[in-house]
Amino acid sequence: MLQGFRDFILRGNVVELAVAVVIGTAFNAIVTVLVEALINPLIALFFDASRLQDALKVTVPTLFDGTSTFAFGAVIAAVINFVVVAAAVYFVIVLPMNKVNDMRKARAGIAEEAVPAPTQEQLLTEIRDLLAQRSDR
């Protein structure tokens, strides 16, 4: 039982996952500062996003003489925040990194050729031919 656990821990996937979590946590700080320092002030030029959380509230009576409030504005604000963060990460970090990687590959002479995947018939034909070669020996 301990041997299986040791094999699991020493597998490359677990170490890579741990490194990814640490890097992701550090990257989160960059994204947070980017959004708070640049993106949110840019949005504030056009409208006050903080007022959206207080808007679109629906209060309904409960069965026990109380009230329950549905804050649709907060949900919409969270969705907008997610889209803004995703767009910021894509356009500021992912897209430039992809361009840098493409330029590096071009300099190294690595061409990306789209090789179409073989069809099922082609694969079956290849398997048939390989089996025929084996049986001829």
UniProtKB/TrEMBL annotation:
Gene Ontology annotations for the cellular component aspect, listed alphabetically: plasma membrane
GO molecular function terms noted in the UniProt entry: mechanosensitive monoatomic ion channel activity
Topology of the protein relative to the lipid bilayer: Multi-pass membrane protein
Keyword Nucleotide-binding: no
Cellular localization per UniProt: Cell membrane; Membrane
Family annotation (InterPro entries): MS_channel, MSC/AndL, MscL_channel
Record keywords: Cell membrane, Ion channel, Ion transport, Membrane, Transmembrane, Transmembrane helix, Transport
Residues passing through the membrane, by range: 12-35, 70-95
Subunit structure: Homopentamer.
Family per similarity comment: Belongs to the MscL family.
Function description: Channel that opens in response to stretch forces in the membrane lipid bilayer. May participate in the regulation of osmotic pressure changes within the cell.
Official protein name in the record: Large-conductance mechanosensitive channel
